[in-house]
Write a structure and sequence with these properties.
The protein is mostly helical. Helix content is about 65%, strand content about 5%. The two termini are about 20 Å apart.
């Protein structure tokens, strides 16, 4: 996968995350509060994993001891955090060269185990990990009477990637 494809997929991720959070915001906050809370927990989990892999890619400590935070951010806070994180990925990856993508990076998993992955494999994890959880959130949005976003790649490419 070349850099331009990765950047396009990150732009898709940014769009899909934002559309999902917008659908959550549109729900009646007092109705189905437990399901709405779960939606935010799932979206926050996506963000935390994105931040963990961001630190891994740059060889820095991430400071997380779990795959989610004890507190649940507001939808607005989460939207800002996710947007900024994905913007970082877009900027960082735009500056990478082919050799950078192939570099194996050693790191520690949150559970303490040793890991080593190529940078491109870490990026792929960030790109595809969230799709699973956004799908679950979409299902929960439907269960709460909301309209989940049409977060398919073809819609994104048609409307946002000219």
């Amino acid at each position: 996968m070349d850099r331009n494809t990765v950047v396009t997929l990150l732009k898709y991720k940014k769009w899909a995350d934002a559309a999902t959070l917008k659908s959550i915001i549109s729900l009646d906050a007092s109705a189905d509060s437990q399901k709405r809370h779960l939606m935010l927990r799932l979206m926050n989990h996506i963000y935390v994993v994105d931040m963990i892999f961001r630190a891994n890619i740059t060889g820095q400590s991430h400071g997380y001891t779990a795959l989610n935070t004890p507190e649940t951010p507001s939808c607005d806070e989460l939207a800002a955090n996710m947007n900024a994180c994905t913007d970082w990925y877009i900027e960082h990856i735009s500056a990478m060269n082919d050799a950078d993508f192939a570099e194996t990076i050693n790191f520690r998993f949150v559970d303490g185990g040793d890991g080593g992955m190529k940078a491109i494999d870490m990026i792929n994890h960030v790109l595809f990990h969230g799709t699973y959880h956004r799908g679950a959130v979409g299902w929960l949005i439907s269960e709460c009477g909301g309209v989940p976003p049409k977060d398919v790649m073809t819609v994104f490419l048609r409307d946002h990637n000219h």
